[in-house]
Amino acid sequence: MQSRGLKIAVDLDGVLAESMLVWCERVNKEFGMHLTMDDLDSWSSWKKFSISKGDFYRILDECWEDWQEVPPTEPRIAGKVARIEKFGDIDVVTGRSKKTETAAKSWVDRQRIRYRHFVRVEGWRDKIVLDYDVYIDDAPDLMRLISETPLRWAVLYDRPWNRSVPEMPRVLRSASWNDVPKLLAQIQKALS
Question: Tens digit of pLDDT for each residue in 119-156?
Fold first, then answer.
């Protein structure tokens, strides 16, 4: 892809990969629970279910050990991502742990998602210091940081854990990947 517009950071977990579905299956098996993704209605759901933060992230990492089992968030995800190439350069930007980076990259490649760079950061807060115009992400707390940073925009990909995020400047909501092209067109127009 050649540079011809926006610099777009696309998150992996919860935006491209439905890792939390696999997480629910593993938590249910390990802890004898009956969780579904709709039960994950906050960014720190472990508090609600008496699961330690350590167990939450350990199990999420374990989901990536069997990366072939992680489904995409939507059918034909590669084609849907390809529809936004006309808006600029696409990088996959993730807070995946170092030990799951190879598996995560293999997942993206196996899905045939076209991207320029695969970028791993230590955590979601580190994304805001990267030089992107638009972040397509599901992290509720990242939205506040983006909204407070001039010239940064976000497409908030709808998930149960981010539905309580209030409206804020330069944060547009996407119910599905089908909404993303028109939202990027709005952002491109606002930046021109």
Answer: 999 888 899 999 999 999 999 999 999 999 988 999 99
List phi, psi (to 5°) of 80.
-70, -40
Amino acid 88 reads: G
Q: What would the pLDDT profile of 90-125 be if each residue is shown by its tens digit?
A: 999 999 999 999 999 999 999 999 999 999 998 888
DSSP 154-180: EEEE--GGGTTPPP-TTEEEESSGGGH
Helix or strand run (H / E) with residue 80: helix 77-82
Residues 40 and 133 in one domain: no
What is the band of 2 on the pLDDT scale with cuts at 50, 70, 90? very low
- Which pLDDT value is given to residue 1? 38
- Nearest Cα residue to 113 out of 3, 185, 6, 11: 11
Give the 3-state secondary structure percentages of the chain, helix then strand then coil, rounded to 5.
45, 15, 35
Q: Do 93 and 160 fall into the same domain?
A: yes
Enclosing domain of residue 59: 19-69
Indicate the number of domains in the chain: 2
